[in-house]
Amino acid sequence: MNIAFIPVRGGSKSIPLKNIKLLNDKPLVYWTAKAAQEAKCIDKLVIATDSDEIKKTVLSFDFSKLEVYDRNPENAQDTSSTESVMLEYLEGKNIDGNFILIQATSPLLKSEHIDGMFEVLQNSDADSIFSGVREKQFHWIEGANGVEPINYDYRNRPRRQEFQGIIAENGACYINSIENILKDKCRLSGKIIAYELPPETAYEIDEENDWLIVEELIKKRAL
Asked: Which residues of 112-126 are buried (b: 16+ CB within 10 A; e: fewer)?
């Protein structure tokens, strides 16, 4: 069984009840839930929440693959890790298959992205995969002697079209086997590969400015 898992909680300091705030006339979590519902590789969609209001909202989507999991409030705190609620849901269940973690704050994720990731993982020798975007900025890190480049040689600056860049996680989607997650207690493990998504998917909704940008991108997609 392939399970899509979207953890959402009621508490959000930056944007109150962010996960059900309307984004282009739909609750934020609707967009990733819709992508999971429409992905061919997904058998079940689980939205895990500690909020009755969020639960009521997501059940109104009436998606055929959807079930709501009442997550433990202890695993829905500001300091709680995503892995804590993943393990809460999986431990004690006799389930085989793959676990597709999806973040509600990445509403530009599409069903074809999920299916593409799953196909690439299945046709590889890798154990897990994450979605990311290619960055072609030159990155530096602060050190004791100023700053140092970490992905290029400033003495031999490459032209942009010749520069491979680096892959950055966009936080949208991760796939691993249920067996590996239970064993390693982590969303990624073993041999890890990346699945490159379009640059605009780098936006994650954390602050109001992110909201405004993503709203315009979703409008543009609909044209």
From this structure: ebbbbbbebbeeeeb
**Cβ–Cβ under 8 Å, residues 102 and 126:** no
Is the pTM of the predicted complex or chain greater than 0.85?
yes
| Residue 187 a catalytic site member | no
**Which residue in the list 134, 155, 157, 160 is annotated as catalytic?**
157
Q: What is the pLDDT along the chain (223 residues), one digit of tens a residue?
A: 999 999 998 876 667 788 999 999 999 999 999 999 999 999 999 999 999 999 999 999 999 999 999 998 887 887 789 999 999 999 988 899 999 999 999 999 999 999 999 999 999 999 999 999 999 999 999 988 899 999 999 999 998 888 888 999 999 999 999 999 999 999 999 999 999 999 999 999 988 889 899 999 998 886 5
Q: Residues 6 or more apart from 117 whose CB is under 8 A from it?
A: 129, 131, 173, 175, 195
CA-atom Rg of the chain in angstroms: 19
